[in-house]
Amino acid sequence: MQLEGKRAFITGASGGIGSAIKEVFELNGVLVVAPERKDLDLADRESIDEYFSRADKDFDIVVNCAGINILSDFDKIDPVDMQKIFQTNFFSAVQLLQYIIPGMKERGYGRVVNIESLYALISRERRLSYAASKSAMSALTRTLAIEYGRHNVLVNAILPGYVMTDMTRKNLDQKDIDKICERIPLGRLAQPEEIAKLALFLCSAQNTYITGQLIIADGGFTIV
User: Is the pLDDT of residue 169 over 90?
Assistant: First the structure.
């Protein structure tokens, strides 16, 4: 993949997809920085400013993988919870990219991958805040692709379908998972490693012309 020696900043690396991305990047020679929450709290704007006031900002790759999902009926949405979801899922990505992407522009090279969700395109009950935050990430992806394309900074998003992660197990019981699998042409949920391999390609030297895209990886779920 010609990634030896590239430097990547990854958020959400403690989660199922994020940890798989970190692992596959490191196996391909990428030098990964993936701060733990005690060092960088994405739910806190001041924490992000503090972190980058003392940390290196020179990275070739950024993968925004952090995300939270607090379920709520529409008429019971807590504005504090909605703000927390948007801060973690969207505003934190904007904030940290404002620190990192100028260096990419200056060096004439950069790869950004935003790990979104099918909920950027579809939704279901009790997921307004989460779906809206992921839709906002789609707008960020497209806009940055336009603004920085001439500087060889390629910005894409991966929209995973149902992936077998701790978040999935938290929000869905086995009966729900079995019903979903019946609707997926491939008959199963994705494994985190499958999403990680796609992120690896998008961030590699082999990707020279894909930018501004929302790439669905859902086993065919949305075409049925």
Answer: no
